[in-house]
Amino acid sequence: MSRIAIVDDSRLVRAFAAGALRAQGHETVEIEPTSLPEVLKVLRETPLDLLLADFLMPECPGESLIRACREDEALRDLPIMVVSAHRDDLSLQRMQQLGISGFLMKPVAAATLVAKVAEALAE
Q1: Is residue 15 a contact partner of residue 30, using CB atoms and an 8 Å limit?
Q2: For a designed S-S bond to 29, which of 5, 39, 40, 97 qualifies (C-beta 3.0 to 4.6 A apart)?
């Protein structure tokens, strides 16, 4: 199946998403967002099919992460899905302009997460 990176400052959210995706046969890589450079380093070193990222992370803001991926030659085509407890229409519009593959509101049900990830991977 697919290899999916999960970047979220909540260990519980990372574990929940990883468990739901692994149950569907996906391989997951959980990344603690200690800093933007560290996250980008792991993403560059790991062959991935999708990045699942939180939007509000103190050490590695989601918008900065998305922008950095789009500016990085190795990561610019990586599909990115954002999962956040905060929905700000202006921020969502900026993320869409950066080419995200989807947006999910927290809390998200496992079945919804799995379905949206399948849609993003099929694009």
Answers
A1: yes
A2: 5
Which residue range(s) make up the domain with 57? 3-122
Burial of 70 (0-12, 13-18, 19+ CB in 10 A): middle
For residue range 12-62, list pLDDT tens digits in order: 999 999 999 999 999 999 999 999 999 999 999 999 999 999 999 999 999
Q: Into how many domains does the chain fold? A: 1
Is the CB of residue 37 less than 8 Å from the CB of residue 30?
Answer: no
Closest C-alpha to 57, from 109, 8, 111, 2? 8
CATH of the domain at 96: 3.40.50.2300
Give the count of beta carbons closer than 10 Å to the beta carbon of residue 79.
19
How does pLDDT run across 8-20, given as a tens digit for each residue? 999 999 999 999 9
